[in-house]
Amino acid sequence: MSMKHCFGSHVSVAGGLDRGVTRAVELGCDCLQVFTKNANAWKAAPLTDAAISAWQSAYQKSGLKHPIAHASYLINLATPDPGLWEKSIDALVIEWQRCETLKIEGLVLHPGAYTTSDEATGLQRVVEAIVRVGEIVLPQHCRLMLENTAGQGTCLGHSIKQIGEVIAGATQHAPTLADSLAVCVDTCHAFAAGYAIHKPDGFRDFVNQIGDFLPAGAVRALHLNDSKKPLGSRVDRHEHIGRGELGLDAFRLLLADPLLGPLPGYLETEKGTDPESQRDWDEINLGVLRSLVTEIA
């Protein structure tokens, strides 16, 4: 198998966006994911020219590929609350514009939660919001990547079909958006939402749904996370690769898959140091993924 794999992690940008690049290089990443602003705050200080050029110069020297960003957790495009909806739209415009400025490839977004409305209304709100944001941003470099969710509470996007409906709805209203929308598949979320991707049949079913409900080539990135909680728990708790309920078989199946295997994969597992080996957890998880590649090669 001559498939080229690309592994990286979500890295901290404390001290500046360019510090994220340095951290990713130190960990031995091939790709990286960052927040371009505080993910738990609405406000974002505008990007300075100095910050932009520091990021670009660090990135160009790094040898890293496929930089993506994750949008703020506060954004909820599915909400029935008009004030929160408008605020979410404004926040997404700023985040997408920041990614355009930094020439980041993808901005990962959770579709949102419909709270007191219903699924159909929530999905319609997401479609309308994405169309509005797209018309303001007019993206050239960065795709908006919808992420599948674990389906906690009223969160949308736990099925590939729902994500497909959002993309179909948005591109129907705004055909020019077709090239600017994509999908990021999270392994932990898929498993928690009930996809048995740790078993060959379940994995095949998941890949078939991608083929049935998403445009060809829509999946552009992977979040590689094991799951602390069991299949179908609807609870989003990431675990280190091979140490959770998903186990190594799920990652073997994924990495051997001709469609998903070659996509850039980003760890979102817990940071810190393994008390046993005193090694950085990201380094350990990257090592596990790379050892699976040699196994299936």
Radius of gyration from CA coordinates: 18 Å
What name does CATH use for the topology?
Answer: TIM Barrel
Give the termini distance in whole angstroms: 5 Å
Whole-number count of domains: 1
Order of helices and strands: EHEHEHEHEHEHHEEEHEH
Structural class by SSE content: alpha/beta
- Poorly predicted parts: none
CATH superfamily: Divalent-metal-dependent TIM barrel enzymes
CATH class category label: Alpha Beta
Rough outline:
globular
The amount of beta strand, in percent, is 5-15%
Could you describe the largest sheet, including whether it forms a barrel?
A: 8 strands, parallel, barrel
Keywords:
single chain; 297 residues; alpha/beta; TIM Barrel; globular
Describe the structure.
The chain has helices spanning 17-27, 49-62, 82-102, 119-137, 160-173, 187-192, 200-213, 247-256, 281-296, and strands spanning 6-10, 31-34, 65-70, 106-109, 143-147, 181-186, 219-224, 226-227, 238-239, 264-267. The chain is globular and about 50 Å long. It is α/β, with parallel strands linked by helices and 297 residues long. The chain has one domain (6-296): TIM Barrel, CATH 3.20.20.150. The protein is 42% helix and 15% strand. The model has no long low-confidence stretch (mean pLDDT 97). The strands form two sheets. An eight-stranded parallel barrel has the order 1-2-3-4-5-6-7-10.
